[in-house]
């Protein structure tokens, strides 16, 4: 199967709409929004862990839960601050009395707001907000967000209780639970342990594909070592049921230990391999070429690259640990790319030969090298927008990562919009 075909199959099977009974008083709702929602029945009310991604979907969730339980949501727990887990919370504005969220363990860099324009642009590209359903297929770990398909907008309720301890035990409407800080996909991540039910709600520190250990929309370094510690902490509770923030629940203590153990160990292998490559003096791209997911993990269904990728992980680790400089003195102060490109093209002489070679590479399926030659021509002052767009659309069909697909197609559309007809 092509990358596109594999992604379509993943979209059809990974997050169908389901209301899953997890124990006597816990339900997990999948496929109603981009993320999952988990409802716990208290004595007189509901505790809701995450609220889907839009106001319209939040309203549907509210109606569903009230029909099933004849109780109202009075407590909301956010597993983290991503908007796809909070965007439907406004639907519960009239009944929610307490909204719990963890405070970030590492504050965001100051003045991040000065990057809002470019980060918003890159976010839209990563998630495919400007693409059609056919182009987008899926957002990798869930159905498309409501605001991307005309199904509502974000409507956030702010937290009333900021959880700042490493862990805290609570009894809420007769339900014993434990909140545990767990840095991972975000620095404000927490998981919820229900000891009487032996259920653990892990947020986005596990979902059933290779995780976004680096987000191509642009983000601060995601501390992978801390993420590994959080996975070990989750495993230490030996839950009977694991309810993630995306994709399907896992049932059975032994199965959960196996899946989380493989998930953790695969990530750790990539981390350690990357650090070893760096320690041997490799540059970033050499490390990417060298690091391989061990064979025993490659075919596991919950480690496929439908969201993040191993190569992005390697690059994220490299930049996170040592920054932009790879140790090669030639790279300390390189000439501008435009100057370098013009020098190379001047040596080549025949621009038409370069364009012909790009077309040959495309026909052979080597879209990446063809696109890099397009960059050489573009930086050298030549108009190759049509060739570049063709390469971006073609490479998008080969990848399994929804984020990569979206980014390629979004940039191809931008070229089309900016090219005179």
From TrEMBL:
BP term (GO), one: dodecyl sulfate metabolic process
Source domain of life: Bacteria
Listed InterPro entries: Alkyl/aryl-sulf_dimr_sf (IPR038536), Alkyl_sulf_dimr (IPR029228), Bact_Alkyl/Aryl-Sulfatase (IPR052195), Bds1/SdsA1_MBL-fold (IPR044097), Metallo-B-lactamas (IPR001279), RibonucZ/Hydroxyglut_hydro (IPR036866)
SMART domains tied to this protein: Lactamase_B (SM00849)
One GO MF term: protein dimerization activity
Name this polypeptide is given: Alkyl/aryl-sulfatase
Listed transmembrane segments: none
Species this protein is from: Candidatus Lachnoclostridium pullistercoris
Metallo-beta-lactamase domain span: 34-246
Lineage: Bacteria, Bacillati, Bacillota, Clostridia, Lachnospirales
């Amino acid at each position: 199967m092509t990358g596109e075909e594999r992604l379509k199959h993943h979209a059809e099977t990974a997050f169908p709409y389901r209301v899953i009974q997890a124990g006597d008083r816990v339900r997990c709702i999948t496929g109603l929004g981009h993320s999952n929602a988990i409802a716990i029945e208290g004595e007189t009310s509901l505790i809701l862990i995450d609220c889907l991604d839009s106001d319209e979907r939040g309203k549907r969730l509210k109606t569903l839960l009230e029909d099933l339980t004849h109780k109202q949501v009075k407590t909301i727990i956010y597993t983290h601050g991503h908007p796809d887990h909070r965007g439907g919370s406004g639907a519960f504005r009239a009944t929610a009395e307490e909204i719990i969220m963890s405070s970030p363990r590492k504050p965001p860099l100051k003045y991040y707001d000065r990057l809002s324009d470019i980060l918003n642009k890159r976010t839209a590209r990563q998630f495919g907000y400007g693409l059609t359903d056919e182009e987008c297929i899926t957002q990798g770990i869930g159905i498309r967000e409501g605001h991307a398909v005309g199904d509502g907008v974000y409507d956030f309720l702010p937290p009333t209780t900021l959880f700042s301890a490493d862990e805290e035990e609570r009894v809420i409407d007769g339900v014993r639970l434990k909140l545990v800080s767990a840095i991972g996909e975000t620095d404000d991540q927490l998981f919820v342990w229900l000891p009487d039910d032996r259920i653990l709600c892990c947020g986005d520190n596990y979902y059933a594909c290779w995780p976004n250990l680096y987000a191509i929309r642009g983000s601060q370094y995601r501390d992978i070592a801390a993420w590994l510690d959080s996975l070990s902490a989750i495993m230490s509770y030996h839950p009977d049921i694991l309810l993630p923030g995306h994709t399907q629940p896992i049932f059975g203590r032994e199965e959960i230990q196996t899946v989380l153990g493989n998930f953790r160990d695969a990530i750790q292998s990539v981390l350690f391999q990357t650090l070893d490559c760096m320690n041997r003096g490799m540059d970033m791209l050499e490390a990417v070429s060298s690091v391989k997911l061990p064979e025993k993990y490659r075919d596991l269904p919950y480690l496929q690259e439908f969201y993040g990728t191993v190569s992005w992980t390697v690059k994220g680790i490299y930049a996170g640990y040592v920054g932009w400089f790879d140790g090669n003195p030639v790279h300390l102060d390189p000439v501008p790319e435009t100057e370098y490109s013009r020098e190379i093209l001047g040596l080549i002489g025949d621009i038409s030969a370069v364009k012909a070679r790009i077309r040959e590479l495309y026909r052979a399926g080597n879209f990446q090298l063809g696109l890099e030659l397009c960059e050489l021509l573009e930086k050298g002052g030549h108009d190759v927008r049509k060739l570049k767009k063709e390469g971006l659309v073609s490479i998008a069909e080969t990848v399994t990562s929804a984020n990569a697909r979206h980014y390629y197609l979004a940039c191809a559309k931008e070229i089309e919009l900016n090219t005179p007809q």
